[in-house]
């Protein structure tokens, strides 16, 4: 499995293809501490106003904060808004 991942990374670099596409990785974009955009996710595990847990291909993403709201829910994209205090990627 590691060898295959290494081969895919090498191909992506040589062909100038983003690794998130080749390796099925999430793309996480944060705007200050107010918005967090998660692309290429596998679903929401838990949602409260202080915690959002998102399933990723390899592990989970924990978003802790205050007044967290889900916006722009799409098949492959989630926008979390509120006051974000901590983001943790657990593999």
UniProtKB/TrEMBL annotation:
Pfam families for this protein: YabP
InterPro entries named in the record: Spore_YabP/YqfC, Spore_YqfC, YabP_sf
NCBIfam families from the UniProt entry: spore_yqfC
Protein name listed in UniProt: Sporulation protein YqfC
Native source species: Anaerospora hongkongensis
């Amino acid at each position: 499995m590691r060898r295959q991942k290494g081969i895919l990374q090498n191909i992506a670099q040589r062909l100038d293809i983003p690794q998130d596409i080749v390796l099925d990785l999430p793309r996480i974009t944060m705007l200050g501490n107010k918005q967090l955009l998660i692309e290429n996710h596998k679903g929401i595990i838990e949602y409260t106003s202080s915690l959002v847990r998102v399933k990723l291909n390899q592990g989970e993403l924990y978003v802790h904060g205050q007044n967290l709201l889900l916006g722009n829910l799409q098949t492959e994209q989630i926008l979390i808004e509120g006051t974000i205090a901590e983001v943790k990627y657990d593999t």
